[in-house]
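Much of our argument rests on the idea that a fold can be written as discrete symbols. The amino acid sequence and the backbone structure tokens for this protein are reproduced below:

___
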Amino acid sequence: MIGIRRAGIIVSAIVGVCLWAPPSFGEADRDKLLSDPGVFGTFATFSFGDLWAKQDQATRIGQLVLLKGVVEQHREKIAIDLYLLRGLSDHADLMFRVHASELRDTQQFLLDLQNSAFGKHLKEAGLIHGLTKKANYLPGFPDQMKADLKGPSEPGPKPYAIVIPVRKSADWWALDHDKRAAMMQEHTAAAVPYLKTVKRKLYHSSGLDDLDFIAYFETSKLEDFHSLILSLEKVKEFQYTRRFGHPTLIGAVKSLDEIIESLAQ
């Protein structure tokens, strides 16, 4: 037991030293990229190749240092969030959510990532793009609903992230704006009870991907998220949904250092 404990301490020390990377030249305005309309959001998922687990720990740590270097280098222009999917999703092991004012900046990050010694072990599992926009139907909502939508979420970390691709039917887009607005008001009313415990962000994908929307959620209460989805499936608007998920991605929200330490074991 003493030997195992000592080995663990040594590993933690090695990881702690190796996780250091030189500071980047600057950092993008993360809050602005995550809140402004007109920002591109990309969800890139990867699985590890067979050779990753066969390497010794020191080699893996060295390659993970390079991962940190690539991420820090590109944070000058883009906002990058990481998620550990392994153990919660059978679609991928790792996910990057990238926000950028220019999609080519996201492209360059992903190219540099995959060309790194760490990236050579990654197999692309999925790649979807969307664009943040101002809410189309919000201006016509009742004042109380508008106020509810601006309410703060519960404090504290929200460790789970869920990503759901969505595609609507042609019949949905054929409806006039007022009919769609009325159904989206019903949709929003069904979601209001869960606003405090489930954070939600919508990306518009038409023309950028084979989707119409990407729905992104964060929560600490998966039971509330489950109830939210059941409520949304009961409203009229859901009848116009051709694709919901397929795949649905669920993972743990992690800092870059937490991701690296997990993968170094």
Summary: The longest strand covers residues 122-131.
